[in-house]
Amino acid sequence: MVHILIVDDQKPIRDGLQAMLRQFPQQPEAIHCAASGAEALELLQAHPIQLVITDIRMPEMDGLELMARTRAEGRQLEYLIISGYGEFGYAQQAIGLGAKGYLLKPVKRDDLQTALARVMQELQTRMSLSRSMEQLSARARETERKELRMYMQGASYDTAWIEQTERRQPALWRDYRLCLLRAALRVNQPTTGGAGSIAALAERVYGREGCLCLQQRPGLVLAVRADAPPAALAAALREAGIEATVAVTVARGGLTALPESYAEATELHRHSYLLPERPCIGPDDIRHLERQWQLPYEELYALFQSIGSAADGAIVQGLSRLFRKETLQRYDIRYTEQLCRATVEMLEEYARVILPYMGEDSLELDALRSLYDYPGIRDYLQALQTQLLRLNQFYIAFKCSYRNSQDLKEAIRYIHEHYHKPLDLAMVSNHVSLNYAYFSNLFKKNVGKGFAEYLRDVRLDKARRLLAETDRKIVEIAAMVGYESYKSFTRAFRDAMAMQPTEYRQAMRQPGARAPKSSGSSRPSGF
């Protein structure tokens, strides 16, 4: 929409022109009025004015001087001039300065409407052309970024393209680093400011010509000038309240080094999972890591051999020993990747055995394929722990169904069906018509744990899933899984899990989770 400025030292003429303009079909967005050329200059500074209707003869600064001043300042304005019969020479000068037309006093309504329609059409055509040029320019920039991204990731381009691309930003490509960001929350989420706002922040740190966004997803990749401190972006993000780890490569020169820089940035990004406390990670931070190792298969086998016969707490402790923080940070990230892969493969083998007996339940192992689908290693280990604990529960029920008598099978079924009601050993033994003491010993011998502990584990397993998957109040969940009071439920949950139900829910609601989370009897140690 167009802003119009009326300049005339006589108020009746200003008011008359304004009244006529408001009667025309093509309405401007705003009409401003000035009594002198000096006042007009102030309004031009304050408003996005495109058209000026000005009298030629005014005291102090006349219309011609106003036109000359704005032209010298490089302002893109259109002018319609108002002149009397004896001022034709002035009108000619105004036309020479670029005026689109002149109107004789007194200004007639039809003349003003015709002149205004012509200028408005020119303005709309120019604005439409400007928008088209901006869109073409934006598409060209996006095409260039896409080509750079493909080249960065290994695509082949000829020497002419490389040289032409370097010439567009010679200062940047002469000496640059790559920055790859891993945000605590994904950088494309509004809570982290988004990839666009982080790139804008980087422009403030390095300057418009010293920063180029090459990729927004899956990780934000920036090429930045190398003369700035490597930790400059991380410091700016921290000051802006954005929690992120920035992987920063060594300085390189020339576009031909871009694929090598990207490979290094990706490697640093993967290693940042081992060093979550560091906001900025560079080559010196991983140089000391050992590149040779042997996976702890004995500990891995011991962990899975306890499946179906160990309490949840023992499973959690075994997993924590397997993924000990000090050990993971001793080796290259490939050690952690291989250990994760070996653990998931074992999970798959054990799950295949029991799959026919799971019914509608199943383990959610696809979410464990990649460590890097999670915000951090701790989130991954919580997801892994969840599936191990579920597998343990499945195996306990599975072994009972094959080792125990029909009465014991019925008791297990009865517990799983009535866990949410008041339930004790006497009620279950009566249900299967067995002596109280005999049933107690039989249950513990075959199940591997006492009745009270087993009932607690069943109830807490249901509670963990309700906490992770629903928004029900904790007092409601306590009643749903068979606890008579909120207090007794939270005490049992804390004793078994080493955290309050509210803490567990908060941990499981972190972005990046692919499956319902459960931390078992305690959290994984270290991370």
TrEMBL record:
Its main location: cytoplasm. Pfam families: HTH_18, Response_reg. It comes from Paenibacillus sabuli. GO terms for cellular component: cytoplasm. Residues 518-527 have a biased composition (Polar residues). It is found in: Cytoplasm. This is Response regulator. Keywords: Cytoplasm, DNA-binding, Phosphoprotein, Transcription, Transcription regulation, Two-component regulatory system. GO terms for molecular function: DNA-binding transcription factor activity; sequence-specific DNA binding. The modification 4-aspartylphosphate is found at D55. PANTHER family: HISTIDINE KINASE-RELATED (PTHR42713), TRANSCRIPTIONAL REGULATORY PROTEIN HPTR (PTHR42713:SF3). Residues 409-507 form the HTH araC/xylS-type domain. Residues 3-120 form the Response regulatory domain. InterPro entries: CheY-like_superfamily, Homeodomain-like_sf, HptR, HTH_AraC, Sig_transdc_resp-reg_receiver.
